[in-house]
Please model this.
Amino acid sequence: MKSDLESAFWAAVDAAHPEKIMATNLPPRPDGLAYVFAVGKAAVPMAQQMEKLWGGDLSGMVIAPHGAEGSLASLELRTAAHPFPDAAGAESASALLAALQAVPAGRDVLFLLSGGASSLLLATKDGPAPVLLKQATKALLNGGADIHALNTVRRVLSPLLGGGAAQACPGRIQTLAISDVVGDDPIAIGSGPTVDNPTGGAEALGLLDQFGGDFPEITRWIKQRPDVSPVSGTFRIIASGPQSLQAAEVALRERGYDATITADSQIGLADDNALMLADRVRRRPAGRAQVWLMGGEVDVRVIGQGRGGRNVQFAARLAQALDGVPEWRFLAADTDGQDGNAPNAGAFCDGTSWSRARALGLDPDAFLSNNDAHSLFEALGDAFITGPTGTNVNDFRALALT
Model:
């Protein structure tokens, strides 16, 4: 069963991988020099497919997280830190801004967007220092801000987010996006570098005050930033979480499982969702083997100092709630290959996870309380490590009931 759940995860990833989706979604190639830009966790494979499908005579830039694998023949590759900005990222984002501004007026521009762009484009050389942006981001997250609140603030901190990239470019921008957000709202994907921003400085300042603490330099920066004017261009989503879950459902059914997507838009706290799922498991009719597939983007309220992420937090809370309950196995993982602040994509768990931890002399409840679920599952041998997958359509969760 463990290998089958892992195969379902890879079916979901494969359905959203640029190698599978780019060729059928490209607009016609413009004559002559083609301008292409790509930002996000899937930026390199998306750009590689562009070079393969459109051939040479390309101009543009690609920004991906540090450590992104792969080389490019024509497009310039730069990297930046994720999930928190750094000085190298500020250089990269500023270079991207200059490259967009240099596009000749009226030329067609293809902008390839994937999750992670918010962090990669947050810091610029002329904006707040990366260390300050990192502190503010952590304060917002630790204060309970969800991703929508966080991105509302990010959109006014960078000249590239919230429509800034489109406003800076004199060309006609077409955006192809791999969505990593629940609901597939364009402004929420990478903080919407090429679409209109529905919020502005006032909303950002209110959220900072509500969640983020006192950051005078950032407050001053927001107050002097002009709102981005309405931007034009086309925007199309070419892969999303629900589509990937459908691919996983098909893959499991082909292996003979009774697989069903039970939730493709989970939001809220990982702990709350895990406890609701545990209650469903306890109340289900006995004797029916099933696989429940779930996705979305849950949050974690960070109160500890450990290594964690939303998917391992979900798995650990479920294992705690169903400790000793037999005949179930669960996989929770992020489709980009990294869940939170450790290299795991996620983790497996089952009804023996808590007892196995205690047998090793560990206190699993303490790990969970310290937001250290990564360390717990590594000690159990249940960490799910994939490395970067080349795409990002958010959470994948599968519960097998036997």
